[in-house]
Backbone:
């Protein structure tokens, strides 16, 4: 552990305001958005390669993830009845505005793709919508990293390079897990592979992030956030390894899928907890800024 | 657009009367934010927030008593300026940044730039998403519990439209809070700083006046007598939206990686390792 940095503050009070987003709404939405986005890409590839049964699971997961996620976001607002104000403008400087449009399109398209699949109606329209989610899906899974990184919260902003990969890995693991849980093992081979790759990406991105951040990454290691992030990594690694050896075993697939899902949720809850801890302690705000100033103007 | 208006808060003549806090509450009809004894000198307000748009900070400082090495009777180490204990007071307020992070990230357009160059929340638009709250590098704006919307200083937009100065500046008995065209205030602040330096107050410095800082300069800037962090202000604030293009590039790379990873698993030989699942599906 690095030695405690010397710094001055106003009675130890935080300089910035901590994120006020609620649990479980916000981190669960992050999970669901990831699940929906990566499931869409899985559904597209399943359609193109003829994995029909897995494709059906992925289409439904994508639609449910996006619509449940949107519901959580609305419930999260201080004025939920004004939810549609999110689509009042399109504002490139606001990742939340961009994200609202991405989610709206992703939600609509994935709902069409899933409905068509389940009812058998308008298969061409369903396929067209599905193909379009091949674009909105990856964006849905990763824009949330920009959303949290574009804040004054040091543990979030300083991590803007790794967070998208952490979120993408977590999303892949979530989608792979859902595919494994809801598809007969014989048809879930690609889902297992997606889960393994996702778990690997999630684990590596998280480790790289904490190493590169140094003192700014401390909130990911301490307290409740530390417990969540460590258990997320253990579950991702364990679930990923299990997925690699699960083969046709239904039991192993179930354990692996549940572990990966729990790991992805822990990652998202851990990110929020770390952000709050990073904002609450003025040292994370003051010390790097003071160093920056003193570096520019040596005294 | 009319001339850009601003606040110059000269903390060297603040007497900590809190008339600004009271005037702000009265004019803007802000609810109380609890009656708590904070044990932080005379400050029981704590910080700026949804219902506190002016906040007077109180810092009681004493310098250590030094015993002379020659065995003299020592004295107060005044660092050459005959210093004794001092009491810093400063009325904090929204900075109305040139590059305002709250305004940048607001997804509904509720936050907007007025004709006076200030940043204001439209209460009839805000849906309480809360994004502006962690985006502000000064920790100014907050969501009001029970109301659900974000609130902060408007620099008395309504009074300015009527040709009046903001309530806090009007009520300030020492003119520690000065309101006027920003360019004029900057000149006045430079003169005041030169005067204080000439009088031997080397610790006096301006905060937020430079258009070259991380927020492009503040519309409400300060003259401080110690480091900004002592007053609870960030030493080198940055509106993080300036890194947005880079952030989107990294997210784009991650999105492509995600798509690529899925594509590989379905098409490549990679899947072959996973116990013939693919064969089973292709029956």
Residues:
């Amino acid at each position: 552990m690095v030695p405690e940095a010397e710094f001055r503050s106003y009675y130890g009070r935080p300089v910035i305001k901590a994120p006020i987003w609620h649990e479980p709404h916000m981190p669960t939405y992050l999970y669901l958005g990831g699940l929906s986005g990566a499931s869409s890409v899985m559904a597209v590839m399943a359609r193109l390669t003829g994995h029909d049964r897995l494709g059906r699971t992925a289409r439904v997961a994508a639609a449910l993830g996006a619509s449940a996620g949107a519901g959580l976001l609305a419930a999260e607002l201080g004025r939920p009845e004004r939810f549609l104000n999110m689509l009042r403008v399109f504002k490139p400087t606001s990742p939340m505005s961009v994200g609202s449009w991405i989610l709206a399109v992703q939600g609509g398209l994935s709902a069409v793709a899933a409905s068509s699949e389940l009812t058998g109606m308008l298969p061409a329209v369903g396929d067209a919508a599905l193909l379009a989610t091949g674009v909105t899906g990856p964006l849905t899974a990763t824009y949330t990293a920009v959303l949290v990184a574009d804040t004054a919260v040091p543990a979030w902003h300083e991590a803007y390079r790794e967070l998208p990969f952490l979120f993408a890995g977590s999303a892949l693991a979530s989608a792979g897990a859902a595919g494994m849980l809801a598809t007969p093992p014989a048809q879930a081979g690609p889902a297992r592979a997606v889960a393994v790759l996702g778990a690997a990406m999630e684990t590596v991105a998280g480790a790289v992030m904490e190493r590169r951040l140094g003192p700014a990454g401390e909130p990911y290691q301490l307290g409740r956030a530390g417990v969540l992030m460590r258990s997320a990594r253990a579950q991702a690694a364990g679930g990923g390894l299990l997925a690699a050896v699960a083969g046709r075993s239904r039991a192993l697939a179930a354990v692996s899928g549940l572990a990966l899902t729990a790991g992805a949720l822990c990652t998202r809850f851990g990110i929020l907890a770390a952000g709050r801890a990073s904002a609450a302690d003025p040292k994370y705000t003051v010390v790097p800024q003071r160093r920056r100033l003193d570096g520019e103007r040596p005294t | 657009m009319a001339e850009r208006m601003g606040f110059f808060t000269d903390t060297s003549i603040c007497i900590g009367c809190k008339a600004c806090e009271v005037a702000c509450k009265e004019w803007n009809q802000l609810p109380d934010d609890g009656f708590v004894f904070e044990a932080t000198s005379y400050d029981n307000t704590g910080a700026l927030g949804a219902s506190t748009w002016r906040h007077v900070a109180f810092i009681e400082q004493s310098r250590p008593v030094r015993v002379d090495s020659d065995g003299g009777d020592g004295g107060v180490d005044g660092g050459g300026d005959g210093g004794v204990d001092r009491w810093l007071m400063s009325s904090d307020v929204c900075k109305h940044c040139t590059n305002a992070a709250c305004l940048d990230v607001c997804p509904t357009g509720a936050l907007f730039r007025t004709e006076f160059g200030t940043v204001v929340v439209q209460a009839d638009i805000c849906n309480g998403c809360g994004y502006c709250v962690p985006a502000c590098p000064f920790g100014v704006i907050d969501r009001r519990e029970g109301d659900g919307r974000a609130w902060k200083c408007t620099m008395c937009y309504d009074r300015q439209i009527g040709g009046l100065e903001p309530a806090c500046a009007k009520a300030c008995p020492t003119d520690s809070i000065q309101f006027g065209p920003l360019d004029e205030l900057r000149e006045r602040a430079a003169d005041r700083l030169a005067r204080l330096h000439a009088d031997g107050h080397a610790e006096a410095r301006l905060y937020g006046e430079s258009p070259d800082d991380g927020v492009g300069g503040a519309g409400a800037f300060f003259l401080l007598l110690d480091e900004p962090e002592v007053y609870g202000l960030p030493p080198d604030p940055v509106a993080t939206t300036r890194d947005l293009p880079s952030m989107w590039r990294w997210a784009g790379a991650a999105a492509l990686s995600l798509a690529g990873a899925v594509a590989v698993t379905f098409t490549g030989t990679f899947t072959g390792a996973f116990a013939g699942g693919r064969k089973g599906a292709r029956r």
